[in-house]
Amino acid sequence: MAEDPTFGNHVGGRSVPGAAGRRFTATDPSSGQPWGSFVDSDAHDVDAAVRAAAGAFAGAWAQLSATRRGRLLGAWGELVAANAETIARMESTQNGKLLAEMRAQARAARDWLHYYGGLADKIEGRVIPLERASVLNYTLREPLGVVGVIVPWNSPTFLTLMSCAPALAAGNTVVIKPSEVTSASAFELVRLAEEAGIPPGVLNVVTGGAAAGAALVDHPQVAKVCFTGSDAAGRAIAARAGARLASCTLELGGKSPNIVFADAPVDNAVVGILSGIFAAAGQTCIAGSRAYVHESIYGAVLDRLVQRANSIRLGHPLAADTQMGPAATTAQLRKNEAMVARALEAGGQLACGGRRAVVPGLEQGFFFEPTIVHGMAPDNPLLQEEVFGPVLAVTSFRSDDEVVALANGTRFGLAAGVWTRDFARAHTLARRLQAGTVWINTYRALAFNSPFGGQKDSGLGRVNGIEAVDQFLQTKSVWCETSDEIQDPFVMKV
């Protein structure tokens, strides 16, 4: 690949320039240097992509049987997995996350696409039993049309396919608007889809910032918007889409708690907490950014967390021995610094980290030290607001009721972890915790066939599992009178 690759939008199977000729440059966060030039799309560019998707929806894609669509999704999955290294290097270079993580996510795409490919011809209607025997009433489950998918920078391939796979299985077509931080891999995904035999126009890519995203949300031919990102942006998108009665699936932020009881498998809990917040430099919606540890083991667990955090190796995400990469952007780096400062001003105590880190050979990189803050009141901003960085808040608790109140005491409800050998307690808490996912004695586990999504300000709808397909379908009721009997229009039959 060229040192500074240049990309056009991908519309109807072709690379096309932007209508206005504006472009932007992405940055390698490890070096702070430019990497890649992309179209800064406007409403004209988005309209071209939507029209291409609408054409494919009414034409080539609609003409394929559900079984054939499903087989094409499976073939796409094989190609994505075979090209996982290329995709992963693109993403690690653009967002600073570890190559191993991005590679694993790209390889996992095969499972998602095979699963939804298998569901494509399992979408069925129903025959409704009516009292009037001469009337046949049945339902059809039909696709919505063009779906807009707006993707964040932290797990581009993974999150793109979480929306695209069920949307395509249901028979829809898609316009993808990737994050301006990580735009490159979307083009590789769509190229591979078309190589697998998915017709041009079924998947389209437009790059750019807020203007492109707004144009996609506002477009009258976009039937549904799938967005993953901040809760503030999600609210704005839901309001704009709702104004024209378009539906949304929103996977938004989190402030997820890891709860460690006195009888927990402590070794596993410590590893779970560390991986939940530091493995991806905190740049994941499900980051376990709050740890609540029972007071009887609080000091010992905190000491172990600090010791392990201080030993994490920062470095280039493409290096095999790196354990944590940089923040993806300078804005995120500044947010990490600001959130720690606010937490300390509000009474928190710094246990480790808290500053920008300098990595030899990567002095201009956006690195931040693994950070732990403790000794906070429940209203401390670090316990209430999403950081999206490697910053862990640790607090003690005494009782089940107290920790449930603390865990539920934010506006978020994406995920939670419970660490205990008492499974009666664990399953009771699973019901009491306000979270879309609860992990017991594990953390960050996801699967293609298990639904995922949030409660409260953490989102609307679900990705993964059979439920996801339902959200890309609409139901039509068909009535058919089979009798030749002439009906008197003025006589009601009930």
TrEMBL record:
The catalytic activity, as recorded, is:
4-(hydroxymethyl)benzenesulfonate + NAD(+) = 4-formylbenzenesulfonate + NADH + H(+)
Quaternary assembly = Homodimer.
Physiological role: Involved in the toluene-4-sulfonate degradation pathway. Does not discriminate between the sulfonate and the carboxyl substituents and can also be involved in the p-toluenecarboxylate degradation pathway.
Organism domain of life? Bacteria
Top-level EC class, please?
A: oxidoreductase
What name has this protein been given in UniProt? 4-(hydroxymethyl)benzenesulfonate dehydrogenase
User: Mind listing the UniProt keywords for this protein, alphabetically?
Assistant: Oxidoreductase
Which family is it part of? Answer: Belongs to the aldehyde dehydrogenase family.
Residue stretches making up the Aldehyde dehydrogenase domain: 22-478
Organism (species)? Ramlibacter pinisoli
